[in-house]
Structures are given as C-alpha cells and as structure tokens.
C-alpha cells in the first residue's frame, strides 16, 4: 500500500518548506523564487500558494515589495496543518473492509485498529513542526543529512513530454466527464496505473493536474503534469498533455527495454495514457458507473 501525499499535497509541502527556510529573512518570496527553489510547475504555483493563504498559514501582498510569507514562525506551524491545507482533514471516512457480510452492518472487525492508525498518524504530523522539516531540507542541501536506507530515491533521468489525443466529445462534454471522473480517476487509467486527476480553478480553470504511476510494461514509471481540453469543433475536442516522466525501476534493474531508448518508451507511455483517458471519457456507461460509485461512497 502506497502512503504518500497527492501531487497537490506534494507541491503545497514543498512551497511551505521554501517559505519556512525564508522566514528569518523577513522578506516575502515572489512566485518565481518559490518555483526556482521547489521546482513546482510555474502554472500551478499561484494556486498552491493560495492553499497556504486560505488555510491561514501564509500571507500574500501585491506590489513590487510583495510576495508570500508564512503567517507564523515555522516552529508554530505543524506538518499536519500543511498537509490538511492541501489534502483536507486527515481522517478515516469509510470502513476499511467495505460492506462485507451482513453481520458487519454496523461495524467491521478492523474498525478500531484502522481508526487508531489515523489517530497515530495525525498525532505524529501534529507533533512535527514545519521548522524541523525545513532544517532537514537545509541539511540535505548542505550534504550533512544522514540518508536513511528507506529513502526510496533512485535518481532516474526525467524527460519533458507533450502529446495530444482527440476525444469524440465537445469541449463542454469532455470537461463534464473529467469533472465526474476526477474523484475516481484510478478507474479511468486503463491498463495497470495509479492515477490522480485534479481540476484546477481560478486562472487555470479548465485545466487538470495529472499524475500517474505505471505498474506494468517493460519499465515501471511515473509522470506528472497538466492536461488541458481544447475545442476542435462542436462534437470533438483535444486532450493536450504536458508532463514530466521518470522511470521507476528498482535499483539495479534494466531501465532500457530491449531495442527501445528511454525517450521512445516514455513517448509511447504518454500516448497510451492519453488514448486510454480519451476512450474512458467517450464511454457514457463507464462515466455513469463512476458517478454512481461516487454517490454510493
């Protein structure tokens, strides 16, 4: 089971760490400075920082001397607050075992243990300050941090990719299908992928933050970026994707499929993803099933 932040949560945490490290300077940070320090995509940075402002964790000021700054010192901000600013309240909303036998109508046998897991996680995040995490980041940058064996970092080469796929739906219909599906995006991916799809708002309304991990194929991989819907005519639209792709093979594994360069494999993976996404949006039965699943949940 993969216990990680969503891509939005990842970007919010990166930005919070950046503002925490800058807090002692008593100078607001411009969006471009946050982007340079964190590698958060420039097109998402204003929305990510707005999450911190809405949560009361940061302040923003317009003008030449303006920018973003933490509202409180990093020692007074918990990691839990930052996580919940992006992900919403950290709690168990559904039973871990689903419906199950009729004797589980009121409670399942795993309920107490699973609920306690959430309590323990919340407690640990609440007791960890943003200052602690920012200090670790500074130590990593300085090369003085002891890297644990469980760091999970394999330092693969990233590739910047762009591609398109046509959808036999008008732009409004495509947006509606994507909006219905965003809460159950894993079911849209086709093949063996873990997918998250998040609608953006404000100036980025109509665009989607996308991230997926491919679990099969010659090279397991992950990608993140954005998808836009562009009208072609009244009955057709185009999905335009710009993503960063990384191979995710285990340490020591072969990163190049026989007869295929990594860049060629990455392009094939993006093309397959867009085709699968387009087909899923074009199937009314599939999107209807997703919507019903959302109401049931």
Structural class: alpha+beta
SSE string:
HHHEEHHHEHEEEEHH
Radius of gyration from the CA trace? Answer: 21 Å
Poorly predicted segments: 251-259, 285-297
Helical percentage? 40-55%
Shape: globular
Strands in their spatial order, largest beta sheet: 3-7-6-5-4
Separation, N- and C-terminal Cα atoms: 20 Å
| Biggest pleated-sheet summary | 5 strands, antiparallel
- State the helix count: 9
| Name of the CATH class of the largest domain | Alpha Beta
Number of strands: 7
CATH architecture of the largest domain: 2-Layer Sandwich
CATH superfamily of the largest domain: START domain
Strand content range: 15-25%
CATH domain topology of the largest domain = Alpha-D-Glucose-1,6-Bisphosphate, Chain A, domain 4
- What is the count of structural domains? 2
Give the integer mean of the pLDDT values: 82
What does this structure look like?
This protein has helices at 7-22, 31-38, 42-54, 79-87, 111-127, 130-142, 171-181, 262-282, 284-296; strands at 58-61, 67-70, 159-167, 193-199, 207-214, 221-233, 236-247. Helices cover 41% and strands 19% of the residues. The chain is globular and about 55 Å long. The strands form 2 sheets. It has a 5-stranded antiparallel sheet. Strands 1-2 form a two-stranded antiparallel ribbon. α1 (7-22) packs across α4 (79-87). It is built from 9 helices and 7 strands. β1 (58-61) and β2 (67-70) form a beta hairpin. The protein is of the alpha+beta class. The chain has 2 domains: 7-142, Orthogonal Bundle (Arc Repressor Mutant, subunit A); 159-296, START domain (Alpha-D-Glucose-1,6-Bisphosphate, Chain A, domain 4, 2-Layer Sandwich), CATH 3.30.530.20.
């Amino acid at each position: 089971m993969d216990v990680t932040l969503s891509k939005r949560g990842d970007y919010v945490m990166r930005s919070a760490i950046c503002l925490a490290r800058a807090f002692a300077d008593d100078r607001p940070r411009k969006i471009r400075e946050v982007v340079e320090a964190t590698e958060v995509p420039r097109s998402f940075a204003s929305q990510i920082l707005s999450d911190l402002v809405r949560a009361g964790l940061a302040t923003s000021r317009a003008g030449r001397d303006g920018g973003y700054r933490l509202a409180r010192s990093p020692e007074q901000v918990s990691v839990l607050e930052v996580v919940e600013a992006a992900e919403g309240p950290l709690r168990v909303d559904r039973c871990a075992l689903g419906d199950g036998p009729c004797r589980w109508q009121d409670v399942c046998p795993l309920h107490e243990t699973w609920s306690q897991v959430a309590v323990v996680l919340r407690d640990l995040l609440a007791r960890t300050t943003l200052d602690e995490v920012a200090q670790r980041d500074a130590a990593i940058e300085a090369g003085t941090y002891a890297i644990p064996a469980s760091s999970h970092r394999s330092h693969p080469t990233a590739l910047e990719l762009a591609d398109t796929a046509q959808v036999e739906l008008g732009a409004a219909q495509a947006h509606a299908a994507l909006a219905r599906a965003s809460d159950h995006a894993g079911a849209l991916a086709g093949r063996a992928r873990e997918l998250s799809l998040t609608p953006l708002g404000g100036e980025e309304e109509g665009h989607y933050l996308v991230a997926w991990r491919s679990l099969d194929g010659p090279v397991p991989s992950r990608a993140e970026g954005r998808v836009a819907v562009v009208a072609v005519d009244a009955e057709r639209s185009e999905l335009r994707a710009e993503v960063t792709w990384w191979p995710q093979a285990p340490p020591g594994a072969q990163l190049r499929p026989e007869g295929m360069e990594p860049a060629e494999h990455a392009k094939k993976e993006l093309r397959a993803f867009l085709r699968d996404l387009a087909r899923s949006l074009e199937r009314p039965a599939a999107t209807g099933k997703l919507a019903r699943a959302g109401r049931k949940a």
